[in-house]
Amino acid sequence: MSDSEIVETGAGAARITWHPADEPRLVLAVSHGAGGGIEARDLRALAGALPPLGVSVALVEQPWRVAGKKLAPAPKTLDTGWRDLWPAVAKRGLPVVAGGRSAGARVACRTAAELGAAGVLALSFPLHPPGRPEKSRAPELLGAGAPTLVVQGGNDPFGRPAEFPGPQAFPEGAYELVEVPFADHGFAVPKRADLTQQEALDVLTGAVGAWLGALAP
């Protein structure tokens, strides 16, 4: 079962849809990207797979999405919404991992240290605009200041796994990367791939579940 709540922020009203664990050890608060909402296949998969593992999942809809707007606002406004809703995901007294896909991953990275996040889950981190590797956003990822897991599609035009800086670039060695073979920015895999769509999502949820389990045994 899931339940939703509206949270007022300085950027407007956000919505949190909870998928609670029966005996939670931690909370994963995870938001969408600039091109979609919490219906994204990776977010749905995590909401289904993690509660049985003791992780309550809070799917966060940013205020611009709740308001029905089609374009995401500037990063500063996205960060304001995320900061202001954080008390609502932390109120249960459990460690909270900040997560997001694409633009949501950037928000999580930029704000993790100040919010005291227990970790950062970056799904499809947009390392650079497609075709513009010189416009790297690696400093956001490497500056998260918390244990970080990146889950990236093997064919993501916003940054393929081999393009990411090595773990040694992370100040405290807390950066891990998992590749979902053949997957694009939305973790879709082509029919000709050597694994099915469900198997690709199983790679994602398995990696995230194991990483979260190590954070909060």
3D architecture notes:
With 217 residues, the chain is of the alpha/beta class. 30% of the residues lie in helices and 24% in strands. The chain is built from six helices and eight strands; from the N terminus they run E-E-E-H-E-H-H-E-H-E-H-E-E-H. Helix 1 packs across helix 6.
The outline comes out as globular
The N- and C-terminal alpha carbons lie at a distance of: 24 Å
Instruction: Give the biggest beta sheet.
Output: 8 strands, mixed
Strand order of the largest sheet: 1-2-4-3-5-6-7-8
What's the multimeric state? single chain
Task: Provide the succession of SSEs.
Answer: EEEHEHHEHEHEEH
* Uncertain segments: none
Output the number of helix runs: 6
Task: Give the averaged pLDDT, no decimals.
Answer: 94
